[in-house]
Design brief:
Number of strands: 14
Order of helices and strands: EHEEHEHEHEEEEEHEHEEEH
Oligomer: single chain
CATH superfamily of the largest domain: HUPs
Number of helices: 7
Structural class: alpha/beta
CATH architecture of the largest domain: 3-Layer(aba) Sandwich
Helix content: 25-40%
CATH topology of the largest domain: Rossmann fold
């Protein structure tokens, strides 16, 4: 009787961006909302992960790193993610992990560089980490003609040392950035066309919870809790703080002056070609 082999647990390193610029109380609130949104997206995609948070990073321990990356890179507020090898912050452990991680990732005759950064108190500098880990990688692969090139390497390895842990990886996958969804109030968006969809998405990126006039698989991909509302509800509801319209400079927007709440036109400065290009980026999740 054959036994199933369990997938190894891998750490996905998650970075966020604008939250770090906020005051301590606001940052704490935004980080809590961001974690809620990450957990919601993982649940929506049915990806199991243990989520923890420390400093300016979030850590996902999961047996499905590809699924976790797909989910988290659709969460507003996330700057980038990396699937990483984890070790302690001891220099010998970092070098051993870097050596092991490099095997099979460097083609014969290729060049490489190590980019290291550090946060916390350690008996070494970031430069020391780059030099020692680079030496370990070179020694492990020198029989295949590997060389160091700090200017234009064929392959880059990244090491982040944070307090008692270190993370080794070779890829950054960008997220949408912006602010966590739900931190900036609620708006109603007219989503009858691509320009309206993009306008709603841009407001969502700035942290607004968007109610839409028409259901959209595209927007639901970024907000599993997407809800529908009529534009006529905008000025009747106390919880709606604005109206979002997908208008261009060629449209007559004079009627918006009669609204008693703010009206936003996120794409008014974009021509149709730019709107189309941005829609491709949003649809494909390439930022």
């Amino acid at each position: 009787m054959s036994q199933s082999i369990e997938a190894p647990v891998v750490t996905v390193l998650v970075r966020y961006c604008e939250i770090g610029l906020k005051s301590a109380p606001v940052r704490k609130r935004f980080e809590a909302r961001l974690k809620e949104n990450v957990l919601s997206m993982l649940a929506y995609d049915r990806v199991e992960a243990l989520v923890s948070q420390a400093g300016a990073r979030m850590y996902l321990d999961t047996e499905d790193p590809e699924g976790a990356v797909r989910a988290v890179t659709r969460v507003f507020g996330i700057a980038s993610v990396s699937v990483a090898e984890h070790s302690s912050s001891a220099m010998e452990d970092i070098c051993a992990a870097a050596e092991l991680y490099s095997r099979g990732r460097l083609p014969d005759g290729s060049s490489f560089a190590v980019r290291a950064r550090r946060e916390g108190s350690h008996p070494y500098t970031s430069t020391d980490v780059g030099r020692e880990a680079g030496s370990a990688i070179y020694e492990a692969n020198k029989d295949r003609g590997i060389r160091v090139d700090l200017t234009r390497p064929d392959k880059e390895f990244y090491i982040e040392v944070r307090d008692s842990g270190a993370f080794i990886f070779d890829t950054y996958t960008n997220g949408p950035g912006g602010l966590p969804l739900g931190t900036q109030g609620k708006v109603i968006a007219n989503t009858r066309d691509d320009r309206g969809l993009l306008s709603a998405w841009l407001m969502m990126k700035r942290g607004c919870k968007a109610l839409v006039t028409e259901d959209s698989d595209l927007l639901r991909n970024y907000d599993p809790g997407l809800r529908i509302a009529e534009m006529s509800e905008a000025e009747k509801r106390d919880d709606v703080m604005g109206i979002v319209l997908g208008s261009s400079v060629a449209d007559d927007i004079s009627s918006s002056a009669e609204c008693r709440i703010p009206v936003y036109f996120p794409t008014i400065g974009m021509d149709d070609a730019e709107v189309s290009a941005r829609m491709v980026s949003v649809t494909e999740g390439k930022f």
